[in-house]
Amino acid sequence: MEPEHVDVLIVGAGLSGIGAACHLRADSPGKSFAILESRAASGGTWDLFRYPGIRSDSDMFTLGYAFKPWTEAKAIADGPSILRYIRETAAEHDVEERIRYNHRVVRAEWSSQEARWTVTAARTDSDEQVTLTCDFLFGCTGYYRYDEGYSPRFPGSERFTGEVVHPQHWPEDLDYAGKRVVVIGSGATAVTLIPSMADRAAHVTMLQRSPSYVMSLPAKDPIADFLRRLLPAKAAYPIVRWKNVALSSTLFQLSRRAPGFVKKLIRKGVQRQLPEGYAVDTHFAPTYDPWDQRLCLVPDGDLFKAIRSGRASVVTDRIETFTESGIRLASGGELEADVIVTATGLNLLLLGGMSIAVDGREIDLSKTVGYKGMMFSGVPNLAVTIGYTNASWTLKGDLAAEYVCRLVNHMEATGNNVVTPLAPDPSLPTEPFIDLASGYVLRSIDDLPRQGMRAPWRLHQNYALDVVMLKRGALEDDGIRFTRGGEAAARVAAQAAPPDQLVV
């Protein structure tokens, strides 16, 4: 029996996958598609994470889809609101019926002769395996492991008699009311948890090895509220979206060109919201420059309010060992705890961990070079959504989906059915694919593809440039080849990006 065939197969039914399906509906209406989702529900990150206070770390006018205005009051939205928005979008665009739940993609094999992918998925609710074929494979799986977060081995952790929880696997029945809580970490998850738990806990301590940059942002956007009173939602939304893009891009560029100035700016903002004499330089002055790691945003300064009230505190120190009743610090101090939350980060994982083969050759993505930040040298008819590190994920997600639609439409119009990215000249140097010094990136940097020094092999962290390149730019350039399936396509795939010629 022949496996089911679709024109485009989307992997992942989260924010990116639902958006990709909506773009296919609108921009490539004649193309058939299906979505394979490993979990039993849609929403991705926003269904998986259930910890207290889960919220966006970007404003919803840029984290929302370009084609569906965000109409709720809060610009920094809570997780349930974002999940509801994603599912409303799927329902409005008749996407829900295309999702196959409990299908975890384990392998994809490309045949140049047949010009198609054969994709194998394991049913997570049974022992069954399912096979589908597709002309184009679109990975919308995010870039971290859903089944486990990063949990370093802490000495003495087995001695602790309280509860240890990772935010990625938050127990529904965890009762922390009136208890002493220590949150290990200083990233976006930690700064979200602290004020949320402080309302019910006896006290919450954020224990960090080193500080992060933390900025307060209004939970509501006053300019957006003003424009929405004057204009229809569809008219106000793009104006606010571009306004917020411009602000975040300006801050990023300023951080790169005048890091000292931005450091002082952020420090002053923090100092204004903390008690007089607070040790700002100890707890909120990182040693790295702004945007070497992602900034942490706190709506209406809720973290600082919790600290001012005495319900929360920050300790900057190293862990010597867990004890029966808490944590002993390298400085000799001790933190007593009933609950310890290890907000210690993610494990990166491209394409949900599926293995890939092209014409019988196993593909190691770390040996490839990225093309336009979404395709890989020598891997035909495959694209992924990888959002911005310095702006909202969906800004890039929308552009990636639009670009895939342009590709499949272009192939149909020109009589081609294979598109293969090429690597840059092997004598040219390459760089890591993601330019961040965050721990979760550095731990996995050797497993990620590389990027070139210039377009189209450069991963821009610039929305305006990507609009020009992905939405308006030429589809045919020096970095890509369009062919018909068969020997010519096989030769292009085999010759692209020889691993031993990459210059690091």
Structure description:
With 504 residues, this protein is of the alpha/beta class. It has 2 domains: 4-146 and 347-501, 3-Layer(bba) Sandwich (FAD/NAD(P)-binding domain); 157-342, 3-Layer(bba) Sandwich (FAD/NAD(P)-binding domain), CATH 3.50.50. Helices cover 30% and strands 22% of the residues. It has 14 helices and 25 strands. The protein has helices at residues 15-27, 45-48, 60-63, 79-92, 188-198, 222-230, 233-257, 259-272, 280-283, 302-309, 393-414, 439-442, 463-472, 487-495, and strands at residues 4-11, 33-36, 99-100, 103-111, 116-123, 129-139, 163-165, 180-184, 203-208, 214-217, 296-299, 312-316, 319-323, 326-329, 334-336, 339-342, 355-358, 361-362, 370-371, 375-376, 382-384, 418-421, 431-432, 450-451, 480-483. Strands 1, 2, 3, 4, 5, 6, 17, 18 and 21 form a 9-stranded mixed beta sheet that branches. Strands 7-16-8-9-12 form a 5-stranded parallel beta sheet. It has a 3-stranded antiparallel beta sheet with strand order 13-14-15, with no helix packed on it. α1 (15-27) links the parallel β1 and β2. α1 (15-27) packs parallel to α11, α7 (233-257) crosses α8 and α11 runs parallel beside α13 (463-472). The longest helix has 25 residues, at 233-257. The two termini are 46 Å apart.
